[in-house]
Structures are given as C-alpha cells and as structure tokens.
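User: Here's a structure from my thesis project, written as structure tokens. My advisor, Dr. K., wants to see whether a designed sequence matches the one we expressed. Can you design one independently, without my sequence as a hint?
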C-alpha cells in the first residue's frame, strides 16, 4: 500500500522528534509556508531561493532545534519549541526565518519568479495517537506587506490553543522530560 503525504509527514515529525535531546521539555511542530496553488520551490522560484540561500549563509539554523525541508508547495520548518514560564515559545530566529521565506517570495516575484498565488502560513502537528492537525494561521496575497509582529501573533495564537505539550509528542518517540506527580 502506498504511503500518503500524511504518513510521510508523521514519519518526518517522528524522525525530527527522535533527534531532539532527551530530557528537554517542549514540543515539535511543523511551520509551513505553502502556496495556495502552484509551486514555491527552486525550479519555479529561483530568485526567492537565492534570497533564502543568502540569508541562511549569514544566519545558519540550529540543527538541534530547526530543520528546513524544501517541498514543491513551499518550505517547511520543523521546529522544536521550548517550554517557558508562559508556555511554548517561538524563537526570534525562527520568526526571522519565516519572515525571510515570505519576503524572499515577494522579492522573487518582483525579480521575475512566475508563481504569484497567495501564501498560507500553516502550523501542523502530530499528537499522541498519530492524529494530524493543521491550521492556516495567515493568508498572504502576493503584494501584501507582512510584519514580524503579524507572523508571531498568528503563530502564538495557535500555540496558546495547543493541548498540554506532552500530548504533542509522536507516539514513536521517547518521552522528553515528563513531570513527575
């Protein structure tokens, strides 16, 4: 039986979870910048990816907490969020990277990249029983100016609604830092 993209997503998240340091407390999420129709990858958006590559050369991502995956529909960040006193926290470097992905597409269109369909900022996760959840937190038209504050607030809104972080873990990964009662 052929695997579905949901299965591939679950496997990608389980592998990412498995690479996170045991004993730390937090949750893994996927943050996807996806075109609503068409493509957002190197072949159709070479100018956008040139901008993204420049940014990554100057601001390398921490492989312990963030992985970048390129897909035909757009980049995906697998992110490990630490638990803070106010809950799960999105790091400034992740917000900056998301902003770079969004801005690179807009700049790429201005430099001749053809796809012009709106972008969707999506937060995805897998819960204990392998249940898949996805929420579109922001829809961005091609020429819309987006601020860091807009992106952070949109994602923080989802983070506040998430169940207790322990329930976000993949069933295939060992427990990380469960509190003893």
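Assistant: Designed independently from the structure alone:
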């Amino acid at each position: 039986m052929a695997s579905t993209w949901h299965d591939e997503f679950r496997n990608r998240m389980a592998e990412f979870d498995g690479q996170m340091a045991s004993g730390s407390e937090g949750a893994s999420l996927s943050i996807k910048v996806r075109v609503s129709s068409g493509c957002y990858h190197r072949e159709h958006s070479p100018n956008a990816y040139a901008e993204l590559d420049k940014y990554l050369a100057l601001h390398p991502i921490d492989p312990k907490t963030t992985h970048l995956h390129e897909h035909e529909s757009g980049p995906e960040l697998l992110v490990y969020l630490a638990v803070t006193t106010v809950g799960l926290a999105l790091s400034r470097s992740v917000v900056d990277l998301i902003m770079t992905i969004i801005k690179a597409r807009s700049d790429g269109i201005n430099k001749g990249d053809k796809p012009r369909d709106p972008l969707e900022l999506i937060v995805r996760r897998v819960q204990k029983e392998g249940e898949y959840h996805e929420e579109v937190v922001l829809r961005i038209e091609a020429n819309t100016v987006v601020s860091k504050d807009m992106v952070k607030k949109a994602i923080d809104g989802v983070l506040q609604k998430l169940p207790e972080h322990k329930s976000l873990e993949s069933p295939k990964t060992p427990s990380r830092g469960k509190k003893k009662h």
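When you compare it with your expressed construct, this may help: Residues 5-13+25-168 form one domain.
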